[in-house]
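Supplementary Data S3. Sequence and structure tokens for construct A.
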Amino acid sequence: MSDVRLLAAPDKFRGTASAVEIAAAVAQAASAVSASCDAAPMADGGEGTLDALGGPNRTSVVTGPLGEPVAAPWRLSRGVAVIEMALASGLALAGGAPGNDPVNATTAGTGELIAEAVSAGARRVLVAVGGSATTDGGLPAVQALPSPARMSGVEMVVACDVRTAFVDAAAVFGPQKGASPAQVELLTRRLRTLTGMYERDFGVDVAALPGAGAAGGLAGGLAARGASLVGGFEVVADEVGLRERISDADVAVTGEGRYDVTSLEGKVVAGVAELAARSGTPVLAVVGSCDPAVPVPENVELVDLTARFGSQRAHADPCGCVREAVEATLRGGL
């Protein structure tokens, strides 16, 4: 199979393996059958986006989600900054939902990172907004940004992994961040107040922007300051030249931890399948588990690791399972 060219474009398997690790497992499977492999670990705008776009090469100490200082990794290369808000204002930094303060958790650190990037010469700032601890509408981040004059000429792009409306952010995501029903009501009222404030101060109706509720409204706050809200997969795909790399491949291998109805809503597996369909490239999607009720695109062969190896091994050794499943599929013929 030495003339077979694979593209490894997986998402992370949340909580068990990174996209980089899964892509490496696919490359090992390709090597075992003497195929070549182009590794393109992917992300949808949530956690892992920084790694998919080259990984960090800088670290700044900023305000963490609960007000404590945190050392947040980020990237600056050729005038393009990549900031993953979860590394500055993320739920994991707050100790998960049990350790979080959902009412007071702040996005200030993300704004501080953006300011740092602009100060360091960034002309384009990509902000990945998944995995937040916050539902503050992005106001602390907005307040930490440089002045509009200083931001003039800087393109700010927010990679969203959801399309939630601004005012709905508390009801949709607040409970996952530890908010009680009463706190969800409080946070919703606060978001509603901010919509009026942003429209008054910046002339932007964030309530009308799909995705403005991402990261508890951080996306909307940044949009009020001129940011473009873009689907996270599309941002990463454009930055890594995924369309062209899929066209050059004989088989595209993708994957994620759980294939369910959300997989069809701007996530990596569906995005890879759509791009591959345009070039006629077959797709192998290796997933930790799947919802059998969710349809699979016609150009995709789906491998469920839990069904093949059992739940215990699929969770404990996802990379080994991916390697074995991809190698077996390649030997059997896709």
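Construct B, processed identically:
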Amino acid sequence: MSVGRREFLKGGAAAATVAAVSGPVALRAQGKGKVRLAYLQLGWAATEIIHKEDLLGKRGWQAEYSIVPGSPAPLLNQLASKNVDAIDMSFALAAKAFEDGVPLRVTGVATAVLGAVVARKDAGIARVEDLKGRKIAAIVGTSTFFDIRALVLKGYGFDLQKDTHIVTATSPPDMVTLLGKKDVDAIIAWQPITDSVVLRGQGVYLVKQIDLWRKATGRASGFPVHVCYLVHSDFLGPHAAIAHDLNEAQKDAVDIWYNKPARAMEIVGEVTKLPKDVIQVAYKETVRMLHGLPDEQVDTLIAQLKINKEFGFLKSAIWDSPDRIRKEFFHRA
């Protein structure tokens, strides 16, 4: 859910056009009023399942679902301008938007971190330390690159931006091309682009973001979050039930993801337009689909914010105060 991750939609099979907006769902859903939920086409967060199974409509909402291709920026702008009421979004970008003044609240989580370092098969890279001095393709402005750089620095003591040769890529397909041409030894990317590279036999997983997190923080449990749900504060005030219902809808979507995988992958394919074999590998490699805001998850999220502030991505003083974060940034149903 980093910016570059979304740019994957500009190339390859995922660039196929998706219907931008679905109309209002069945009239039975008028009990709680109208809610407009928008999500990114390559969100990989089970929001597609909420949409296609109309899991908000089943909870009494007149739900309108919008699929937004491309990068997160237009989707955040839609929320900020109140053209939609709720969205899925990279957790790091959500925090950045909040400190920049967007009136939003995090109401729940959707999926754990999706990033990884993939090494070229014949590059002779077996350990994270072997990346020193190597050529690595990355989209430097993405939250995934920033997070992985911070975790490597914290866990392994060297800086990917200074101790390797970063080859700046413009999009995930650009990284794939660089690796395929052997112009780089590794890439820093995210699902499903990492899965497609491994599936093609061009690369192997060197380390996943979740493993870097475990080493850097010493946390053996809990899942750092890549995607969360945001609700505009002006909508949340008079419609407080949406926080609970969106989490419950996500819970049902996660249940379908794990217990009805054929249906889950069918929905993901319908929305993303990715090839079936890529979806199957990405499904298998997904760290964890998540829902809600339990205490343990909130503690992990606060730790993520602390690291993002420590290494310069976030600036606001609010991230130094867990009490303020719980009160001002999160909304727990």
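Residues 1-29 have pLDDT under 50 and may be disordered. The chain is about 40% helix and 20% strand.
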